[in-house]
Amino acid sequence: MEMKIVFATGNKDKMREIREIMADFDIPVLSMREAGIEADPEENGSTFEENALIKARAVWKECGGIVLSDDSGLEIDALNKEPGILSARYLGHDTSYHEKNRNLIQRLEGVPDEKRTARFVCAVAAIFPDGREETVRGVMEGRIGYDERGENGFGYDPIFILPKYGVTTAELSPEIKNEESHRGKALRLIKKEIAAYLDKGDGDKD
Questions:
Q1: How many domains does the chain contain in total?
Q2: If you write DSSP's letter for every residue of 50-117 in order, what string do you get?
Q3: Rounded to 5 degrees, what are φ and ψ at 69?
């Protein structure tokens, strides 16, 4: 059976980033819905890594092979690292990110630049055909801006400023964003694990 990578997400924006970063792998990269899987486990872990593994295990039970999952979020130091692991659920699943971003900016009213430090965190979990599990973490440090800027990102990207470039991550080109982003860093780390697995000659197992 052909080896494939199934990523435990249905988010089209996230899948676009994932495929760009993993384009040099000669293996199909499918979302779980493209693979015909509808798993929707409760993400009740206490860390990004635990939540990523919960999702990966649920999908792996359905399809085996190589399954990847990520859990990511925004930590704002002045807000006691909120929204953190609740980033996707902050103010409710059905609340738009425009409203979420506006709320966070309002909560930071009066907080000076030097105390608006924040980071994007991404944990990626991988489960291999033999059942082995690995997790890695990528981090992108920055600060929270005063308004939404940029059209190239999604989620909290329009309010997250990367000091190195002086713009939000929603204003970066896809190439630079993939190089600098928490998800890009974590995916490049997990790519090394996948490459090592395939190099061992295990790639024909499913």
A1: 1
A2: HHHHHHHHHHHHHH-SEEEEEEEEEEEGGGTTEEGGGGGGTT-TTS-HHHHHHHHHHHTTT--GGG-E
A3: -150, 150
The CATH number covering residue 54 comes to 3.90.950.10
Q: Which residues constitute the domain of residue 25?
A: 5-202
Phi, psi of 197 (to 5 degrees): -65, -45
Reading the chain (206 residues) residue by residue, the pLDDT tens digits are 468 899 998 888 789 888 888 888 888 899 999 999 988 888 899 999 999 999 999 999 999 899 999 999 999 999 999 999 999 999 998 999 999 999 999 999 999 999 999 999 999 999 999 999 999 999 999 999 999 999 988 899 999 999 999 999 999 998 898 889 999 999 999 999 998 888 886 544 44
Catalytic residue check, 71 = yes
Instruction: Determine which one of 71, 157, 204, 206 is catalytic.
Output: 71
